[in-house]
Amino acid sequence: MAQVRRLEPASASRGDGTVHGAWEQFVRGEDNIRGVRPEIAISWQRCRDQYRVDPYLTEAPVAVAEVDHALEHDVVIAELGFRAASLAHEISNLGGIVTITDAGGRVLAHWGDQATRTVATEANMAPWFCWSEGATGTNGMGTALMSYTPVLIRGAEHWCQAFHEWSCAGVAVRDVVTRKPVAVLNISCWRGELPSAVGSWLGNAATMTQRILRRRAQDDGAELMAAFNHARPRSSAPLAAVDSAGRVVLADDTAGVLLGIPGSTPAPDPAVRWKPELPEFIRAARYAAKQATRNPDWVGSTQIFTRLANESTAISFRPVFLSGHLVGNLVSFGVDEGDPLPTTGPRTGGEAPPRAQPQRVVATRDNRMVLLQLPEVSFAQSDGNDVWLSTDDGRLRSALPGLDKLETELNDSGFLRVHRQYVVNLSRVREVERRCKGELFLVMDDPEKTMVPVSRRNTPLVRRALEI
Question: Where is the region Disordered (predicted)?
Answer without folding.
Answer: 337-358
